[in-house]
Specification:
By secondary structure, the chain is α/β, with parallel strands linked by helices. The protein is built from nine helices and five strands; from the N terminus they run βββαααβαβααααα. Helix 5 packs parallel to helix 7.
Amino acid sequence: MIVFEKPIVMLDFETTGLSPDHGDRITEVAALRIVNGKIADRLVSLVNCNVRLPFFITQLTGITQAMVDAAPVASVVVPELLRFIGTDALSAHNAGFDAKFLLAESQRLGLAPENEGLICSLKLSRRVFPGLASYKLATLASELGIRFKSVAHRAEADAEVSANLLLHIGRHLSGTYGFPAIDPHLLESVNKLSAVKVPDFLKKKMLSTNSDRR
C-alpha cells in the first residue's frame, strides 16, 4: 500500500542531554526509510563522540560508557547518516530535538543536512488526533495500538515506533479524506496549523487535488 508519494526518513537520536548548545552529544542513531507504506531500509549505530555519559542516561537508555567507547566515531557515522538521508524528507517524534542535534553534529564536521523538509510526528499527532491524554511516544503508541518490538529509549526501537506512527497517521488521513497518497509537504503544512483548522484544510486540499486531476 502506497501511503506517501515520496520516501520519508524517520530519525531518532539518543544523546547525553537535551541541547548541543550545552555540549551534549549523540550516543546512538537510528534512521529508517519509509517507502511504499513500509520500512524499506535502515541505518542504526552507536556513536563514539569521546564524551562521558551521565549516569542517568545509562539508567534511562541502558547505553553504557563501554558501549559508546567501542562504537564507531562520529566522524564516520555522521557522514554515513547524511548520505543515508540524502534529499528525502526527514521526520522525528519531537523533530526539533533531533534536527538540532543533526545540524550540530554535521556542522562539527563542516557538513550540512540536505533533507527536503522536516515533519514532526508529535505535532502531527496532536493535530490529527486531538484530545488524547498524552503525546509522549510510548503512551501515544499504546493508545493507537502500536507496539514496541524492543526497549523504549533506544534509537532503533523509538524510530521504528515513530515510523509506524507516521504510517498510521498517513493511513488515517487517506481513509478519512480520500488521499490516494500523501505528499510529505502536506504533512509539513498540517504541522503548522492548529488542530481545529486541520479538517477544513485537508478537505479543501483534497478538493483541489481532485480538481487538478480533471
